[in-house]
Amino acid sequence: YLIQTYTAYDEKTIQEIIRKVQPEESDTMMSQFARDITKTARQEALREGMQQGMQQGMQQGMQQGMQQGMQQGVQQGMQRGRQEGEAGLLLRLLSYRFHPLPDEITQRIHTADPNTIEAWADRILDAKSLDEVFGE
User: Helices 114-124 and 26-98: crossing angle, nearest 10°?
Assistant: First the structure.
């Protein structure tokens, strides 16, 4: 009670107030006041420590998330670049060998996965027609 009521006062002022109001209980009340101050200080320190820990944890989490996101983005970008490069090369080779290419073939190449593009590229070497390249 005292700590909540008299937080604006210093210890000396509190002692004087207690001695004037209840001189017979001043030692007991000062001991209680000291315990209350200690308890309040611990609670405040714990609250500040938890708040600081949460902030640091959030910052670390955000940094790790950003790093992982950037790494994943770079990897995906490189994979997509390779896939587009392989698709472009396949289109050039097919155009050279079987020109002109139907739009359907061009679209099929652009939407194919890397393994399929690789299989089609391998078939170009021996294929005599587009059907032999794209035949399943």
Answer: 20
